[in-house]
Amino acid sequence: MILTTAKQQFELAKTKYQLEPGCQHPLGATPNSEGVNFAIFSEHATSVELLLFENHDDLEPAQIIQLDPRINKTFHFWHVYVRGLKSCTYYAYRVSGSQDIQAGHRFNENKVLLDPYAKGNTNTLWNRVDAIGTKDNIATSMRSVVVDISDYDWEGDRPLNRPMSETIVYELHVAGFTKSPSSGCQHCGTFSGIVEKIPYLKELGITAVELMPIFDFDEKNIFREVDGKPLRDYWGYNPHSYFAPEGSYCTSPEIGSQIREFRDLVKALHKAGIEVILDVVFNHTDEGNHDGPTINFKGLDNSIYYHLVPFNKYYYMDYSGCGNTVNCNHPMVEKLIVDCLEFWVKEMHVDGFRFDEGSILARGQDGVPLIHPPVIWHIETSEILADTKIIAEAWDAAGLYQIGYFPGYRWAEWNGRYRDDIRRFVKGDSGLAGSAAWRIAGSADLYQASGHLPINSVNFITCHDGFTLSDLVSYNDKHNEANGEGNRDGINDNLSWNCGVEGETEDREIDALRRRQIKNFAAILLLSQGVPMIVAGDEVRRTQQGNNNAYCQDSEISWFDWSLVEKNADIFRFFKLAIEFRKCYCQSALRRSQFFSGDVNERGLADMSWHGTKLFNPGWYDPHSRVLALTLGGFEGEADIHIMFNMYWDALEFETPLIQGRNWYKVIDTAEPSPMDIMESGKEILVSGNVCPVKERSVVVLISK
For the Glycosyl hydrolase family 13 catalytic domain, which residue ranges apply (predicted)? Predict the structure, then answer.
């Protein structure tokens, strides 16, 4: 019905559509009851054409509107109001200007451009090759869609604003989470598919999903073929449109359903008490380097949007490692980024953002890191974003590494130091008692001096980039042959240990050790100060067969295999109960918003005390140590917690503190088989005496009652 109405509109276009000057703000296509206002920014353009299409797959526009700079331009904003036009109309632009590439200008009136502020796009006709070079690509271009964002019933929904200290993040890929036939979903690989799996997420107990990039990217982009199989951009870390949800994650993108389908997901997750964090990529775009396609920014104003080589602006500065780098601290690019974030919070009810290669946001227009980067502080101080979680990957591909000193006050950081130190500790490297203690206690060595807090540290063992947790204990080396790059891609030093055999094995002892190591990692992560992040599938031993860079693997290598939920029910149970333990026990001990201060409770226990196998003897300077223990004193009636880590290859005995009026009870022992590896609340096991045996390569947790 919508398409028929649109077709009737276009048949009457010449007489029906009255053109008016329009407004320069807001940018994008903004419909109201009487028509649509179109506005874009280009400082160096000399002419702009607005193309209107009847259908998403029309080869030619039904109407071309030439914007008159005397009427339709205010400073560097081009705008027009099309009276009578409705939402669900398809549109694009042609922009002309200087073609002096040495000066950084890449205007080409033959290229059809998307609106950077579009709320939806269609790529039915898209041919990436045709967007490269000088040829006209009208018949194979993408089209933007006019979307009415006001027509949606939120049913009272709003961002959940859960405190950072209570957050447990679950990183997942929208398509990969349900794309496997084993998911049993009606709409596999979509936003709707995640909705179908909300009961699973609730049972696991996580509090927030961190969605790998959902901004529109070219999922048709084929990097190469391996054994006749095309390898495409699967991860989506190459966006081209920051306001539009990825069409392939929707059931009906051709009718402009992207906004509605994403909102349905957010609303459903919020009803389940689960927040939504978006992994956003403002450091580079899908247009790539000088040989890449022209999609929007290159054709609108290349010299504004990108860092170019100063002495030859034909080329791009590549701080991102992906071909180009967004000029984030140019005022208009800063505006686009902040407008985008505020849109996703205000109109889409998103709860937070993780910024891929976030350190690029700290680079000035000359590429040099700034002390007070405007875009970072604008995000920090935006009233609309005031309650929004903001998390930086505090490094970039050009060597800027800002762990512990990323600009801003409330920015949290992916703590790469946590990942590396805990991986080394658990695999049995010696002399790491001090490093492990810093990480478990919230990385005060990185954050406290600058006035930051434990909640500024997002702790993780694995993420999308690298080994899965199961592969971390199953492979010493990466196995990326399926990527078609001769196993040269991906990092070489994974700080992993295969427990004696590379890859899959039928050896029960090795498999049992691997399961124990997985539980060790899970226990440490969920017992540490800061914000824990888990990768989807780690809780059921998802494997990528040793591939530590599955960016191009839209296949079983990357997909969540739902048969593992039953196969590895013991691992799922451990994660579930460990999450429950973190939530239920000792808010002052495990979920602190401040660093430990040495306060002593009524039983004489400090808020944190460190030990080795002997009390108060942690062995900070012992180069051979592979053990650590700590006591967390409970306050205001809470239980005390005593944790013992034995990463040595033999069993050891650990002294336990004496506490008046209470006894120690064992909650976790990763050396035990399920269900004795972690006890349900009320079923803890009494521990007598002042010595507790801890088996080799295991973690034991006691609580006082």
Answer: 171-582
